[in-house]
User: Fold this.
Amino acid sequence: MPEKTVTIASRSGLHARPAKIFVQAAARQSVPVRIRTGDRPPAPATSILAVLALGAEHGTAVTLEAEGPGADEALDALAALLARDLDTEEPADA
Amino acid sequence: MPETVRGLGVSPGRAAGRAHRMAGPPPLPAPRPVSDAAGEVRRATEALRSVAGHLEAHAAKASDPEAGAILEAQSMIAADPGLAESVEKAVASGLDAVRAVDAACAHHRRALEEAGGYFADRAGDLDDIRNRAVATLLGLPMPGVPDPGHPFVLIADDLAPADTAGLDPAAVLALVTLKGGPTSHTAILARALGLPAVVACRGAAAIEDGTWVSVDGALGEVGVGIGEEAAAAVQREAVEARERRATGHGPGRTADGRSVPLLLNIGSAHDLPEGEGAEGVGLFRTEFLFLDRRDAPGLKEQVAAYAAVLRALPGRRVVIRTLDAGSDKPLPFLGLPEEANPALGVRGLRTSRVRAEVLDTQLDAIAEAARGGEAEVWVMAPMVSTVAEAEDFARRARGRGLSHVGVMVEVPAAALEAGRLLEKVDFLSIGTNDLGQYTYAADRQHGELADLLDPWQPALLRLVAMCAEAGRAAGKPVGVCGEAAADPLLAPVLAGMGIGSLSMSATGVPAVREALGRLSAARCEEIAQRVLAAPDPAAARAAAGDAVR
Assistant:
């Protein structure tokens, strides 16, 4: 299954605004994406509860996985998002 | 017909508007046997969807982007597919819709708590969502601060910090609670936000949502059913009063110019307002340096913390209170044993009986900071009850070169001995909160006894007057640094008794300055006599209120 590992760049970790932005972006992808830390069982990236429960802080490596047509594009887009510091960016839609 | 219900005024000012009640968390009804599992799942998920929609709408309206983002994240949690899945599982295990929502939220709450750190902080969101969804299912009023879409007077049983975290001071005109006392969270919050507040107002239980009410946070009165016109008049007056206060400045004084310095109660240099600032500090609590520590802070650290405050107030008075600890405010390094009755135990200056070196180091630090600054340093000890204690403290402080040494009057014994205390020390500072607690033998934290802790209680006022009289006889200053000092109705009374300075949190100063500035010293004395003659708090307030109007 295609997967991609990326380090959380946001200073507050995958929490608060970064978590919200990530989950909203995951919901826009054409394929279901899952997220995990280390060897723990993966969780749907569209669930903010599951994403928060990862406890992924700044510098934590997380792995994204997806399958089917468009999987690679979805992984690229979401990985690129996590590699940015979402805390410092202006809200695009506010 | 308008009627008046009374409670305890804890934050002065007047306001009027429609009353709206804060509902508590809905109680869980007894479990129901499930016959239609699909129906239960549908009802539960519909309730969660409705909560999500409500939170989203709120988020869109939020004026503060931070608050909006938090609400949006909350809305996403309520709509989370993982939560819906847990609800389905819970119903499959035999739970009805209400119990399934409760169980699903509890499940995810645990997951967040296990993630730890700031992820665990979001656990409270699930409680809120659970309460809202359960209320929706049961057709009960939505818990939390109401949002009627217009400014309102908030009526609540009591307010906890979590309830008020999202409270919008622009939407809330005043606070009225059925429980609580002068030192309750509601009171502290109201004073910090500058909102009029009445607590311990049982009569407010009968106020219906949407009723026009007026609130007088000085008199502790709530006018119920006053109508829209009267409410508008009160609001106009309140706005004018606020404007007058905002433009007021300068030192505290009566209309004819008798000086009554208005000093600040602070916990550290952070509490000092910016700008031209205060006339001085009447109570610098030093506890913050000592809290959450395994070892006592060293001399250098203490000198730096005291110097930070002294530097900000060159030429002005700074009254530093030595460590006020006890088994009710435990400090691990003091090694105090647990006590059955902490309020009557080893606290305040009494801790120096067990750990004299802690006080000695603190006095060394204060003396050193004083030598390095230009502020006028006064030092005082808390919880003094005998002349011998005062004498011992004064000897230690003066031995280090501190020249303004005083003690706090917080127990009736000290008030009764005020004259003799002033033979040993240079000033007295009355802590009305503790003096009230010990005079009326009523725990400050006890919500049911709030009436006994009323700063207008006659025995408390008589003890304050005795201290003031002793000060006058000795030619030495006597100040008040409890919350009573921030009551603009009481401030002229205290000044009239001969209290020389009033110390309060910074937000209290403008209203007190205005109240004092409207009356001559002679008029203050006259009002004080009337108040002292009153047999109970209501009569005392009325006597002062009549005189001021």
Summary: The mean pLDDT of chain A is 88. The radius of gyration of chain A is 12 Å. The first helix of chain A runs from residue 16 to 27.
